Amino acid sequence: MKPPPEVVQAANALTSWISGVAMETQKLSRSVASLLEQNLAGKSKIDKAALVGLDELSRQFLTNNTFAVGAGTFFATESVEEGGRPWEWWSRKESGAIGRLDFDLTPGSSRYYNYEKLPFFSTAASTGEQTFWGPYVDYLGFEEYILTFAAPFSVHGNFAGVAGCDIRIKDLEPLIMPTLRAIPGDAALINASNRVVLGNSGRYLVGERIKSGSPDQHRLDLNVPHLGLSLIYTP
Asked: What is the mean predicted confidence (pLDDT) over 28-32?
């Protein structure tokens, strides 16, 4: 069945917007890699001196991309010197001020943030490609539904971590909901795990896993490489 023109238009609009976020994330990743290689000056492990300037990259990203609430870098622990900080992540407060977001990296702690096991990091590390994770409730940061875009980077030819950004669902809604509502009937943006990122009706709730195979449900993949996003709709 050929998709209705409203669905095609919506898919193109979503593809364009998400591709823009992906491009900004990749630019941040390249800037991080370039700065680290310059700061390391031949050293093999990322130390405190190598982090100089990374905060400004995150601040600039958040200033230029107001859709994001957080941005920064997570390092592969093996690339960081012993006792070094394995992340530089900055967030926008409700006041508009930008500050560093801290995490508990103590194994066994109730708020232990084992980021290397999370999809935004582990998938990028194993594939070398950009990743999309969410929506998920960020209990260790904003404690609400967010999305994370991340892109891997290498230093001196070796994988060293990911750079990326967080977007709150409540900030995403005014940006893409008009596009979804232009589709006649029920429709939703879906991630690679068949979970709803955002829907235009109560039929599709954020975070809900969609069962495939419904005869009245159609799917149109978005042309954004590696992110696994699609648009589902009911004619």
From this structure: 98
